[in-house]
Structures
1.
Amino acid sequence: MRPEVRIEHRYPTAFGFLCQHGPQALAILHDLIARANDVDGRLVVEASTRGIADRLGFLSKDSVHRRLRQLARAGVIEAVDRDSSSAFGPTTYVVHLEHSGITVVADDGLSA
């Protein structure tokens, strides 16, 4: 069972992040953060566009794909490994929360 995480927003920095990226990108980022693991002090998560869309339920896979690209262009997420066997397979992302006003703390000690 995954540990419970606390995602905190520090204002006004987090509000600026929300204004810049929008609520869809923020919802996707929350999904990634909630599933991330601490790997050598970095937030690392494996996710697929379809998986995120299925979990969120209110965004299409196309909307998720656009927002993932947006977050990647902004340097908030970084794709580090792509399963080359499938265009629809999961990708490993490193989540960079610096300058976002967002922090995460998990019961297992993960903190970013």
2.
Amino acid sequence: MIEKGRHLNIRKDLRFCKFCTDAIEDEKHLLISCPTFSTQREMLMIQIKEKLLNPFVFENMNENEKFIFLLENMKSVSLVAKYLNHTLEIREFLLNKPKIQI
């Protein structure tokens, strides 16, 4: 919603996540905290930690520090890009595909 909201002139404080409804859906929310993508995020974090010399430091970062690290660290950029692509595909599917009723 952070991107669509810009184009639709929706105030930033009203661009809620379609899955959480109490959180603003921005880049940080999608990458760090949206529970809908927790499984994909856990896989990403495992891959990130495998690439780091000292994963303990990463594990002890707060959400803001992790967000900045993930976007700035050259070892994580390709993994983050794959995660974002995959989660955005899942998001589109969940929002646009009707559920089958039995």
3.
Amino acid sequence: MERLLRLGITGGAGLALGWAVQSGLRLAFQRWQGRRAAARGARGERRARVLLERAGYRILAEQPRHLATIEVAGRDEDYLLVPDFLCERGGRRYVADAKTGAGADPSARATRRQLLEYACAFEVEDALLIDVNQGRILRLRFGVLTPRRGRGWGWLLAALGLGAAWWTLSLPTGWQGLGRPSLRAPAAPALDQAPK
């Protein structure tokens, strides 16, 4: 019985030690992965900065912070937004984010939503998606942020209508001159007005 008890204690201690070692190794591996991802992200952001500057963009801020608020069930909740860059070119401001791999595809839903949220929060019309691996900058314009430019048909029709109204009012008989044509012969001039 004593031997069985010692065996149970030794086995329990071994399991506890194994669990502690495994947990420590897993935590160390996760930290290593986090540091590696952070270093890769920092390299990508440095490269993205160079790409922006070469393309003529002026960096206004790196990692600009914006505290946004959303109302949930009548209560305001704050959350922090931190894009990679706020920049400008040609008098226009842009929010820019650097991506690698699948995230650099503008058709990726998460990427589009993130850039739309940044554009709304920073009140800019366009967002820049920097594909670090391909070395390219894609400009995204979200239609909900800018009014759609019409073709000007409304203005053209209004101008034509005003022109037609002005023309008809400038006629000697005004609007009445546009009535049905008369079949009666014009009246003869009065005798006292006849030429002499």
4.
Amino acid sequence: PRRQTRYLGIKMFSLTPEIIDALRSRVFLPYSISKGVFVADVIPRSSAERVGLRPGDIIIQVNDRDLESSADLMKYVQE
């Protein structure tokens, strides 16, 4: 059977220490955030928009599992 690919509806990138430092110099970013996924854009009428994700959001967990990178997010969504 063919496996269905899930579509998130966001453009994202993994947070690196350099990106976190750059974000902290521009906006308030809690020091507790040291990894995760930055939501750069949300596709109109996508599942992400329907659940309330917005550009600038930072996703740090999915189903109580910490995210290290955008690859983790994709892996957890595909499960």
